[in-house]
Amino acid sequence: MSEAAAVVRAFRPNFLILAPLCAGLGVAVAWQQASSPSLLDAVLVLIGALLAHAAVNLFNEYDDFVSGLDLITQRTPFSGGSGALPEVPSAARGVLAAAIGTLTLVIAIGLYFLWLRGLPMLVLGTAGVVLVLTYTRWITRLPILCLLAPGLGFGPIMILGALLALGARIDAMAIAVSVVALLLVSELLLINQIPDAEADRKIGRRHLVIVLGPVKATRLVASLLLGSYLPVVIGMIMGWLSGWSGLALLTLPFSVWIVTRLPRVIDQPAALNAVLGANVAVLLSTLALLIIGLSL
After folding, report:
1. Are 194 and 217 in contact (CB under 8 A)?
2. pTM higher than the cut 0.85
3. How does it sit in the membrane (predicted)?
4. Do 249 and 255 form a contact (C-beta atoms < 8 A)?
């Protein structure tokens, strides 16, 4: 594999759909509010979200390689990184350069919206950049923050930031939707830490799978995953969300299967991978269905 191919692989392109879906929720809420965002601004919001996710991935790939974690991690299709740098170590500098370049583009888009919308963009934009820069190296050593940071980044920061960037307002609908994303993304990162726990422990990380142990962590996974449907139900009851938002509830039976199956397979790698794959599918489907419901 060439250095250029290793850099592209380090972007983890298969997983980059998550950011446009989360930002897409912000666009859908803005549309529901009848704020009529411009096409250019909507496209820039989606591109900025995609680049921010890519920057997190690239910094994570570089830091995991430099720390030695990549050399002791048992990779799965859903955890442990791309494996690009252990295969092509000479590409490390290129991955770091791509991370810095990608984050620079995110900041440039953020500065445009800061100029367009004013200081409210500064708070969420700064928080997003800080998360990108600190997640792998520092936040993964703080259990509660490690759990919440991914959800905050892809949920309130990305969704509410998209709303402000599009000139829309933050209301109960926006908050309900951002909480759904917060819970789902935090759950995604938590469940994907289960196969990596022993390797993470060896390099000094301290996330909740390490602190609680895998069995107790599966209970927290269940609480987050099933709890992510509550904002939709409450939002519909309170009139914050339209009845069409209930489309997101179609994935609930699959989530029930995940949380009942997970504790039984934490020591069975092949079966665990199947659950991790189903979890990714449920998360992406739930977000997509919620976007469709909001748009209708």
Report:
1. yes
2. yes
3. Multi-pass membrane protein
4. no
